[in-house]
Protein backbone atom coordinates (compact mmCIF):
# COMPACT_ATOMS: atom_id res chain seq x y z
CA UNK A 1 0.00 0.00 0.00
CA UNK A 2 1.08 3.57 -0.71
CA UNK A 3 0.12 4.97 2.70
CA UNK A 4 -2.77 5.68 5.07
CA UNK A 5 -5.14 8.61 4.49
CA UNK A 6 -7.85 9.91 6.81
CA UNK A 7 -10.83 11.87 5.43
CA UNK A 8 -12.78 13.99 7.94
CA UNK A 9 -16.12 15.23 6.59
CA UNK A 10 -19.71 14.98 7.85
CA UNK A 11 -21.08 14.77 4.30
CA UNK A 12 -21.24 11.00 3.83
CA UNK A 13 -21.59 11.10 0.04
CA UNK A 14 -18.55 13.34 -0.54
CA UNK A 15 -16.46 11.47 2.03
CA UNK A 16 -17.16 8.07 0.44
CA UNK A 17 -16.58 9.42 -3.07
CA UNK A 18 -13.15 10.77 -2.11
CA UNK A 19 -12.35 7.56 -0.27
CA UNK A 20 -13.13 5.40 -3.32
CA UNK A 21 -11.15 7.69 -5.61
CA UNK A 22 -8.03 7.53 -3.45
CA UNK A 23 -8.40 3.81 -2.72
CA UNK A 24 -8.17 3.16 -6.46
CA UNK A 25 -4.76 4.85 -6.35
CA UNK A 26 -3.55 2.27 -3.82
CA UNK A 27 -3.98 4.24 -0.59
CA UNK A 28 -5.42 2.71 2.58
CA UNK A 29 -8.45 4.81 3.49
CA UNK A 30 -9.97 5.77 6.85
CA UNK A 31 -13.09 7.88 7.35
CA UNK A 32 -14.45 10.04 10.16
CA UNK A 33 -17.54 12.24 10.37
CA UNK A 34 -16.27 14.41 13.22
CA UNK A 35 -13.11 15.50 15.05
CA UNK A 36 -13.61 13.20 18.02
CA UNK A 37 -13.66 10.01 15.96
CA UNK A 38 -10.85 11.36 13.75
CA UNK A 39 -8.53 11.80 16.74
CA UNK A 40 -9.17 8.21 17.80
CA UNK A 41 -8.16 7.00 14.34
CA UNK A 42 -5.02 9.16 14.39
CA UNK A 43 -4.01 7.66 17.74
CA UNK A 44 -4.60 4.10 16.53
CA UNK A 45 -3.38 4.13 12.91
CA UNK A 46 -0.19 5.52 11.35
CA UNK A 47 -1.93 8.10 9.20
CA UNK A 48 0.28 10.03 6.77
CA UNK A 49 -2.20 12.50 5.22
CA UNK A 50 -5.45 14.01 6.52
CA UNK A 51 -8.11 15.62 4.30
CA UNK A 52 -10.39 17.68 6.53
CA UNK A 53 -13.46 19.77 5.88
CA UNK A 54 -13.59 23.18 7.54
CA UNK A 55 -17.07 22.97 9.06
CA UNK A 56 -17.44 19.91 11.25
CA UNK A 57 -20.13 18.98 13.82
CA UNK A 58 -17.80 19.33 16.80
CA UNK A 59 -15.26 21.91 15.65
CA UNK A 60 -13.44 23.74 12.90
CA UNK A 61 -11.05 22.05 10.45
CA UNK A 62 -8.83 25.14 10.23
CA UNK A 63 -8.37 25.14 14.00
CA UNK A 64 -7.79 21.37 13.91
CA UNK A 65 -4.62 21.79 11.79
CA UNK A 66 -2.29 23.03 14.59
CA UNK A 67 -3.70 20.35 16.93
CA UNK A 68 -2.73 17.61 14.47
CA UNK A 69 0.60 19.33 13.84
CA UNK A 70 1.40 19.34 17.56
CA UNK A 71 0.26 15.82 18.43
CA UNK A 72 1.25 14.10 15.16
CA UNK A 73 4.07 16.22 13.69
CA UNK A 74 4.79 13.86 10.76
CA UNK A 75 1.19 14.02 9.44
CA UNK A 76 0.33 16.42 6.61
CA UNK A 77 -3.15 18.01 6.49
CA UNK A 78 -5.02 19.21 3.40
CA UNK A 79 -8.07 21.38 4.13
CA UNK A 80 -11.31 21.12 2.07
CA UNK A 81 -12.78 24.60 1.79
CA UNK A 82 -16.22 25.67 0.59
CA UNK A 83 -16.52 27.46 -2.76
CA UNK A 84 -15.77 31.15 -2.41
CA UNK A 85 -14.24 30.81 1.07
CA UNK A 86 -10.54 30.95 0.18
CA UNK A 87 -9.81 32.79 3.44
CA UNK A 88 -10.25 29.52 5.34
CA UNK A 89 -7.62 27.87 3.15
CA UNK A 90 -5.17 30.72 3.60
CA UNK A 91 -5.59 30.62 7.37
CA UNK A 92 -5.13 26.85 7.32
CA UNK A 93 -1.77 27.29 5.54
CA UNK A 94 -0.72 29.78 8.22
CA UNK A 95 -1.71 27.20 10.84
CA UNK A 96 0.57 24.60 9.25
CA UNK A 97 -1.59 22.84 6.64
CA UNK A 98 0.13 21.37 3.59
CA UNK A 99 -2.39 23.02 1.23
CA UNK A 100 -6.12 23.47 0.64
CA UNK A 101 -8.63 22.39 -2.01
CA UNK A 102 -11.84 24.16 -2.96
CA UNK A 103 -14.69 21.64 -3.03
CA UNK A 104 -16.08 20.98 -6.50
CA UNK A 105 -13.60 23.33 -8.12
CA UNK A 106 -10.22 21.59 -7.66
CA UNK A 107 -11.05 17.95 -8.47
CA UNK A 108 -8.12 17.67 -10.88
CA UNK A 109 -5.73 18.83 -8.13
CA UNK A 110 -6.66 16.20 -5.54
CA UNK A 111 -4.51 13.26 -6.70
CA UNK A 112 -1.25 15.17 -7.40
CA UNK A 113 -1.67 17.19 -4.21
CA UNK A 114 -2.24 14.10 -2.07
CA UNK A 115 0.76 12.45 -3.72
CA UNK A 116 3.04 15.39 -2.83
CA UNK A 117 1.70 15.51 0.73
CA UNK A 118 2.28 11.76 1.05
CA UNK A 119 5.89 12.10 -0.17
CA UNK A 120 6.57 14.80 2.43
CA UNK A 121 4.95 12.75 5.20
CA UNK A 122 6.98 9.65 4.27
CA UNK A 123 10.18 11.68 4.47
CA UNK A 124 9.17 13.00 7.88
CA UNK A 125 8.41 9.50 9.15
CA UNK A 126 11.80 8.30 7.89
CA UNK A 127 13.52 11.19 9.67
CA UNK A 128 11.60 10.36 12.86
CA UNK A 129 12.64 6.69 12.66
CA UNK A 130 16.24 7.65 11.96
CA UNK A 131 16.27 10.02 14.94
CA UNK A 132 14.90 7.24 17.16
CA UNK A 133 17.56 4.86 15.86
CA UNK A 134 20.33 7.37 16.47
CA UNK A 135 18.99 8.20 19.93
CA UNK A 136 18.92 4.49 20.76
CA UNK A 137 22.44 4.02 19.45
CA UNK A 138 23.90 6.79 21.55
CA UNK A 139 22.08 6.50 24.86
CA UNK A 140 24.00 5.64 28.03
CA UNK A 141 22.57 2.11 28.18
CA UNK A 142 24.39 1.31 24.94
CA UNK A 143 27.83 2.27 26.24
CA UNK A 144 29.34 -1.18 26.74
CA UNK A 145 31.29 -2.12 29.83
CA UNK A 146 30.91 -3.16 33.45
CA UNK A 147 34.33 -2.28 34.82
CA UNK A 148 34.33 0.23 37.72
CA UNK A 149 36.33 2.69 35.61
CA UNK A 150 33.77 2.96 32.78
CA UNK A 151 30.77 2.78 35.13
CA UNK A 152 32.12 5.77 37.06
CA UNK A 153 32.47 7.80 33.84
CA UNK A 154 28.94 6.86 32.73
CA UNK A 155 27.51 7.89 36.11
CA UNK A 156 29.15 11.33 35.88
CA UNK A 157 27.92 11.79 32.30
CA UNK A 158 24.35 10.85 33.27
CA UNK A 159 24.35 13.47 36.03
CA UNK A 160 25.62 16.31 33.86
CA UNK A 161 23.58 15.47 30.73
CA UNK A 162 20.27 17.23 31.68
CA UNK A 163 22.06 20.51 32.43
CA UNK A 164 23.45 23.00 29.92
CA UNK A 165 26.89 22.87 31.55
CA UNK A 166 30.01 22.80 29.39
CA UNK A 167 31.75 19.40 29.62
CA UNK A 168 35.39 18.52 29.04
CA UNK A 169 36.05 14.87 28.11
CA UNK A 170 39.60 13.65 28.72
CA UNK A 171 41.00 10.41 27.37
CA UNK A 172 43.32 8.72 24.91
CA UNK A 173 42.53 8.57 21.20
CA UNK A 174 39.93 5.89 20.51
CA UNK A 175 38.62 5.71 24.09
CA UNK A 176 35.06 6.68 23.12
CA UNK A 177 34.90 10.44 23.69
CA UNK A 178 32.53 11.10 20.77
CA UNK A 179 30.22 8.28 21.91
CA UNK A 180 30.02 9.93 25.34
CA UNK A 181 29.38 13.35 23.77
CA UNK A 182 26.50 11.90 21.73
CA UNK A 183 25.06 10.21 24.82
CA UNK A 184 25.23 13.44 26.84
CA UNK A 185 23.41 15.26 24.03
CA UNK A 186 20.73 12.56 23.83
CA UNK A 187 20.29 12.76 27.60
CA UNK A 188 19.72 16.52 27.50
CA UNK A 189 16.75 18.75 26.73
CA UNK A 190 18.49 19.61 23.44
CA UNK A 191 18.14 16.09 22.02
CA UNK A 192 15.65 17.24 19.35
CA UNK A 193 18.10 19.87 18.11
CA UNK A 194 21.31 19.36 16.06
CA UNK A 195 24.42 17.58 17.29
CA UNK A 196 27.45 18.87 15.37
CA UNK A 197 30.83 17.15 15.78
CA UNK A 198 33.99 19.02 14.79
CA UNK A 199 37.47 17.48 14.74
CA UNK A 200 39.70 20.51 15.30
CA UNK A 201 42.83 18.62 14.25
CA UNK A 202 41.34 17.59 10.89
CA UNK A 203 40.64 21.16 9.69
CA UNK A 204 43.45 23.42 8.52
CA UNK A 205 44.31 26.20 10.96
CA UNK A 206 43.84 28.82 8.24
CA UNK A 207 40.19 27.88 7.65
CA UNK A 208 39.16 26.64 11.11
CA UNK A 209 37.75 30.02 12.16
CA UNK A 210 35.61 30.22 9.03
CA UNK A 211 34.40 26.65 9.53
CA UNK A 212 33.47 27.29 13.17
CA UNK A 213 31.90 30.73 12.87
CA UNK A 214 31.17 31.18 9.15
CA UNK A 215 32.01 34.10 6.90
CA UNK A 216 30.36 36.76 4.74
CA UNK A 217 30.85 37.38 1.05
CA UNK A 218 34.19 39.04 0.32
CA UNK A 219 35.68 38.33 3.77
CA UNK A 220 38.73 36.82 2.08
CA UNK A 221 39.85 35.58 -1.33
CA UNK A 222 37.49 32.82 -2.39
CA UNK A 223 34.60 33.88 -0.11
CA UNK A 224 32.14 34.27 -2.98
CA UNK A 225 29.03 33.81 -0.83
CA UNK A 226 27.94 33.83 2.80
CA UNK A 227 28.68 30.65 4.71
CA UNK A 228 27.17 29.31 7.91
CA UNK A 229 29.64 28.03 10.48
CA UNK A 230 29.30 25.01 12.75
CA UNK A 231 28.13 27.16 15.67
CA UNK A 232 25.29 28.51 13.55
CA UNK A 233 24.42 25.00 12.32
CA UNK A 234 24.27 23.76 15.93
CA UNK A 235 21.95 26.55 17.13
CA UNK A 236 19.75 25.24 19.94
CA UNK A 237 21.69 21.98 20.10
CA UNK A 238 25.17 20.75 21.00
CA UNK A 239 28.55 21.26 19.37
CA UNK A 240 31.28 18.70 20.09
CA UNK A 241 34.80 20.10 19.71
CA UNK A 242 37.10 17.10 19.49
CA UNK A 243 40.90 17.44 19.81
CA UNK A 244 40.55 20.87 21.46
CA UNK A 245 44.25 20.89 22.25
CA UNK A 246 44.95 21.38 18.54
CA UNK A 247 43.08 24.71 18.30
CA UNK A 248 45.33 27.74 17.58
CA UNK A 249 45.76 30.09 20.56
CA UNK A 250 44.41 33.10 18.67
CA UNK A 251 41.18 31.23 17.92
CA UNK A 252 40.83 30.11 21.53
CA UNK A 253 40.02 33.71 22.56
CA UNK A 254 37.08 33.76 20.16
CA UNK A 255 35.79 30.47 21.53
CA UNK A 256 36.05 31.89 25.05
CA UNK A 257 33.74 34.73 23.99
CA UNK A 258 31.16 32.19 22.78
CA UNK A 259 31.26 30.42 26.14
CA UNK A 260 31.05 33.60 28.19
CA UNK A 261 28.71 35.80 26.12
CA UNK A 262 26.92 33.26 23.89
CA UNK A 263 27.84 35.27 20.80
CA UNK A 264 30.36 35.12 17.97
CA UNK A 265 31.51 37.05 14.92
CA UNK A 266 31.49 35.71 11.40
CA UNK A 267 34.73 36.31 9.50
CA UNK A 268 34.32 39.72 7.85
CA UNK A 269 31.18 40.64 9.83
CA UNK A 270 31.45 43.42 12.47
CA UNK A 271 28.11 42.61 14.08
CA UNK A 272 27.99 39.92 16.79
CA UNK A 273 25.60 37.00 16.30
CA UNK A 274 23.80 35.59 19.34
CA UNK A 275 23.76 31.84 19.71
CA UNK A 276 22.40 29.19 22.04
CA UNK A 277 24.72 26.19 21.88
CA UNK A 278 25.99 23.74 24.47
CA UNK A 279 29.70 23.00 24.13
CA UNK A 280 31.25 19.61 24.82
CA UNK A 281 35.01 19.58 24.31
CA UNK A 282 37.47 16.70 24.24
CA UNK A 283 41.20 16.21 24.11
CA UNK A 284 43.84 13.53 24.48
CA UNK A 285 46.42 16.09 25.56
CA UNK A 286 47.39 17.25 29.04
CA UNK A 287 46.02 20.79 28.86
CA UNK A 288 47.82 21.92 32.01
CA UNK A 289 51.11 21.06 30.33
CA UNK A 290 49.93 22.84 27.17
CA UNK A 291 49.19 25.93 29.27
CA UNK A 292 52.69 25.85 30.76
CA UNK A 293 54.12 25.59 27.24
CA UNK A 294 52.04 28.57 26.08
CA UNK A 295 49.93 26.50 23.67
CA UNK A 296 46.60 26.77 25.50
CA UNK A 297 44.83 29.65 27.24
CA UNK A 298 44.46 29.22 30.98
CA UNK A 299 41.17 31.15 31.12
CA UNK A 300 39.68 28.93 28.41
CA UNK A 301 40.84 25.80 30.25
CA UNK A 302 39.06 26.88 33.44
CA UNK A 303 35.92 27.76 31.45
CA UNK A 304 35.92 24.36 29.71
CA UNK A 305 36.84 22.26 32.72
CA UNK A 306 33.97 23.21 35.00
CA UNK A 307 32.88 19.58 34.65
CA UNK A 308 35.55 17.08 33.63
CA UNK A 309 35.03 13.41 32.80
CA UNK A 310 38.09 11.19 32.37
CA UNK A 311 37.50 8.18 30.14
CA UNK A 312 39.61 5.11 30.93
CA UNK A 313 41.88 3.60 28.30
CA UNK A 314 41.14 0.06 27.18
CA UNK A 315 44.31 -1.08 28.96
CA UNK A 316 42.73 0.13 32.21
CA UNK A 317 39.47 -1.71 31.62
CA UNK A 318 40.55 -5.04 30.11
CA UNK A 319 37.69 -6.70 31.98
CA UNK A 320 35.43 -5.22 29.28
CA UNK A 321 37.33 -6.68 26.30
CA UNK A 322 35.22 -9.90 26.01
CA UNK A 323 31.99 -7.87 26.01
CA UNK A 324 33.27 -5.31 23.49
CA UNK A 325 34.75 -7.99 21.21
CA UNK A 326 31.49 -9.98 21.26
CA UNK A 327 29.50 -6.88 20.35
CA UNK A 328 31.81 -6.14 17.40
CA UNK A 329 31.50 -9.75 16.20
CA UNK A 330 27.70 -9.40 16.27
CA UNK A 331 27.97 -6.22 14.19
CA UNK A 332 30.36 -7.57 11.53
CA UNK A 333 29.03 -11.12 11.04
CA UNK A 334 25.77 -10.15 9.23
CA UNK A 335 27.58 -7.64 7.02
CA UNK A 336 30.01 -10.36 5.90
CA UNK A 337 27.33 -13.06 5.58
CA UNK A 338 29.14 -15.17 8.16
CA UNK A 339 27.90 -17.16 11.11
CA UNK A 340 30.36 -16.19 13.82
CA UNK A 341 29.49 -17.70 17.19
CA UNK A 342 32.39 -16.55 19.34
CA UNK A 343 36.12 -16.60 20.07
CA UNK A 344 38.52 -19.36 20.99
CA UNK A 345 40.16 -19.16 24.45
CA UNK A 346 43.53 -18.52 22.77
CA UNK A 347 42.03 -15.67 20.72
CA UNK A 348 40.55 -14.04 23.79
CA UNK A 349 43.77 -14.50 25.73
CA UNK A 350 45.70 -12.75 22.95
CA UNK A 351 43.29 -9.82 23.13
CA UNK A 352 43.67 -9.61 26.91
CA UNK A 353 47.49 -9.63 26.70
CA UNK A 354 47.76 -7.00 23.96
CA UNK A 355 48.71 -3.40 24.75
CA UNK A 356 45.90 -1.36 23.19
CA UNK A 357 47.50 1.90 22.08
CA UNK A 358 44.52 2.62 19.82
CA UNK A 359 41.96 1.66 22.48
CA UNK A 360 38.44 0.64 21.45
CA UNK A 361 38.97 1.83 17.89
CA UNK A 362 41.95 -0.51 17.52
CA UNK A 363 39.97 -3.40 19.03
CA UNK A 364 37.18 -2.79 16.54
CA UNK A 365 39.63 -2.88 13.62
CA UNK A 366 41.26 -6.08 14.89
CA UNK A 367 37.89 -7.85 15.23
CA UNK A 368 36.79 -6.68 11.78
CA UNK A 369 40.03 -7.96 10.22
CA UNK A 370 39.72 -11.29 12.03
CA UNK A 371 36.10 -11.66 10.90
CA UNK A 372 37.18 -11.15 7.28
CA UNK A 373 40.01 -13.67 7.45
CA UNK A 374 38.38 -16.50 9.39
CA UNK A 375 36.96 -19.52 7.58
CA UNK A 376 35.31 -20.97 10.68
CA UNK A 377 32.49 -20.00 13.04
CA UNK A 378 34.98 -19.26 15.82
CA UNK A 379 37.59 -16.50 15.70
CA UNK A 380 41.01 -18.01 16.46
CA UNK A 381 44.53 -16.61 16.80
CA UNK A 382 45.33 -17.55 13.20
CA UNK A 383 43.14 -14.64 12.07
CA UNK A 384 44.91 -12.12 14.33
CA UNK A 385 47.70 -9.80 13.13
CA UNK A 386 51.21 -11.24 13.41
CA UNK A 387 52.23 -9.10 16.40
CA UNK A 388 49.37 -10.63 18.41
CA UNK A 389 50.46 -14.14 17.50
CA UNK A 390 54.09 -13.57 18.54
CA UNK A 391 53.05 -13.04 22.11
CA UNK A 392 55.32 -11.35 24.66
CA UNK A 393 58.94 -12.32 25.06
CA UNK A 394 59.77 -10.25 28.13
CA UNK A 395 59.99 -11.25 31.78
CA UNK A 396 56.23 -11.12 32.21
CA UNK A 397 55.66 -13.83 29.60
CA UNK A 398 54.98 -17.44 30.50
CA UNK A 399 58.18 -19.45 31.01
CA UNK A 400 56.54 -22.81 30.31
CA UNK A 401 58.42 -24.68 27.57
CA UNK A 402 55.16 -25.43 25.71
CA UNK A 403 54.23 -21.73 25.58
CA UNK A 404 57.67 -20.77 24.32
CA UNK A 405 57.56 -23.51 21.67
CA UNK A 406 54.10 -22.43 20.53
CA UNK A 407 55.22 -18.79 20.30
CA UNK A 408 58.30 -19.76 18.27
CA UNK A 409 56.28 -21.87 15.81
CA UNK A 410 53.84 -18.97 15.30
CA UNK A 411 56.75 -16.60 14.69
CA UNK A 412 58.34 -18.88 12.08
CA UNK A 413 55.00 -19.48 10.33
CA UNK A 414 54.56 -15.74 10.12
CA UNK A 415 58.00 -15.23 8.63
CA UNK A 416 57.31 -17.76 5.84
CA UNK A 417 53.75 -16.50 5.34
CA UNK A 418 52.16 -19.80 6.36
CA UNK A 419 54.31 -22.09 4.16
CA UNK A 420 54.37 -25.17 6.43
CA UNK A 421 56.98 -27.08 4.38
CA UNK A 422 59.41 -24.16 4.64
CA UNK A 423 58.56 -23.67 8.33
CA UNK A 424 59.32 -27.35 9.06
CA UNK A 425 62.71 -26.96 7.34
CA UNK A 426 63.59 -23.88 9.40
CA UNK A 427 62.44 -25.56 12.62
CA UNK A 428 64.41 -28.70 11.66
CA UNK A 429 61.44 -30.99 12.29
CA UNK A 430 59.37 -33.24 10.04
CA UNK A 431 56.28 -31.85 8.31
CA UNK A 432 54.06 -34.38 10.12
CA UNK A 433 55.50 -33.24 13.46
CA UNK A 434 54.75 -29.63 12.57
CA UNK A 435 51.14 -30.47 11.70
CA UNK A 436 50.78 -32.33 15.00
CA UNK A 437 52.15 -29.36 16.97
CA UNK A 438 49.86 -26.94 15.09
CA UNK A 439 46.92 -29.08 16.14
CA UNK A 440 48.21 -29.56 19.70
CA UNK A 441 48.80 -25.84 20.26
CA UNK A 442 45.61 -24.78 18.47
CA UNK A 443 47.56 -22.51 16.12
Automatic annotation (TrEMBL):
Pfam families with a match to the protein in the record: AAA_lid_14, HTH_8, Response_reg, Sigma54_activat
Molecular function per GO: ATP binding; sequence-specific DNA binding
Residues recorded as bearing 4-aspartylphosphate in the entry: 53
Listed GO biological process terms: phosphorelay signal transduction system; regulation of DNA-templated transcription
Keywords, comma-separated and alphabetical: ATP-binding, Nucleotide-binding, Phosphoprotein, Transcription, Transcription regulation
PROSITE patterns associated with the record: RESPONSE_REGULATORY, SIGMA54_INTERACT_1, SIGMA54_INTERACT_4
Transmembrane domains' residue ranges: none
Keyword Nucleotide-binding among record annotations: yes
Origin superkingdom: Bacteria
Domain Response regulatory: start-end pairs: 4-118
Sigma-54 factor interaction domain boundaries: 143-372
Protein name: Sigma-54-dependent Fis family transcriptional regulator
Amino acid sequence: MKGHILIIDDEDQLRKLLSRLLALEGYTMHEAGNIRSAMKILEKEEISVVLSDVKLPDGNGVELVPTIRTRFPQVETIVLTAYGNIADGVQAIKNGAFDYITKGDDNNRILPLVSKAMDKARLQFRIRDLEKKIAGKYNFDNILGSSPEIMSAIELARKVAPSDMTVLLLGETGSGKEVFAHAIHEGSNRRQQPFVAVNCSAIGKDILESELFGHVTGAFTGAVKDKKGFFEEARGGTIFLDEMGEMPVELQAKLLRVLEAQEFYKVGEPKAIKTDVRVIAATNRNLEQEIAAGHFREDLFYRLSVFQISLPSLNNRKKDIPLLATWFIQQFAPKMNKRLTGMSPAFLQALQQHSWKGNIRELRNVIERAAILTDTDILDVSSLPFDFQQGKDDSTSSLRLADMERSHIIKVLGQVKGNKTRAAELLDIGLTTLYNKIKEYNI
